[in-house]
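Provenance

Sequences were taken from public entries as deposited. Structures were produced by running a predictor on each sequence independently, with no templates supplied. The record for ANTAR domain-containing response regulator from Actinomadura sediminis is shown for reference.
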Amino acid sequence: MTPTDTVLTDQLALEIARLGVVGESSDVGTLHRVAELAARAVPGCAGASGVRWALPRTNGVDPPVPEETRPEPLAAAASHPDIAEVTDRQLARGHGPLFDVVTERRPHGSDDILVESRWPDAMADMLRRGVRCFITSPHLNVNVMVTLTLYGVTPKSLGPGRHALASLLMAQGSATMSNTQQYDDVHRTAVQLQEAVEARAVVDQAKGILMHALGCDADEAFAEMRRISQTRHVKLTALAQRIVGDQGIT
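Predicted structure for ANTAR domain-containing response regulator:
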């Protein structure tokens, strides 16, 4: 084992596993835990930040065409306040390595930002906070894109071969957010279906009341309800609730 290897202790393994618990925290909470774990466990990493992004529209092009899309950050968190400020300033500007990573869907970084000519604004922010190298990587899960940025305080401290744990953290974190989103979508759909079933039941009850009161069949009762709904600008369900609630249709 080389000095740069990370030992996956029982405690670290437990904390990584906890990232996968759906609903345990918000997106920001998950990103913050990923960033903290990366800063603590990834060799050469002095700080980290994570951002969740709205998936860009590709219009059939992958990676998306920069002129036709603009990456939109949805949530962000960092392991340290200085790193959070670096991230927030870049997101506010709307350009920099984070945006290039999302647009191109490939990692970007620098072994020594003191001689880095790209992204001058972002590099100046990092240098003022003692950062000398960084690497930002994307991870795409179902309906979720997450970027994880690792920061080092000495040049070349985040070289190749040291990012396996960071990739694991990013994969687990993005999977959690994806699963949470899918759970929320399913729950929302279930609620909507339940509301639709309840609304249908009220409408059917109202139809039965009108059939008895007017001496008509179901189609005629429903047609009368629609006529009243349209002429009085009242939703059909609200009208049905009034009828069932013995409030009449006047």
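Confidence is low (pLDDT under 50) at residues 1-8, 182-187.
Helices lie at 10-18, 27-41, 81-93, 97-104, 120-128, 164-214, 218-231, 236-244.
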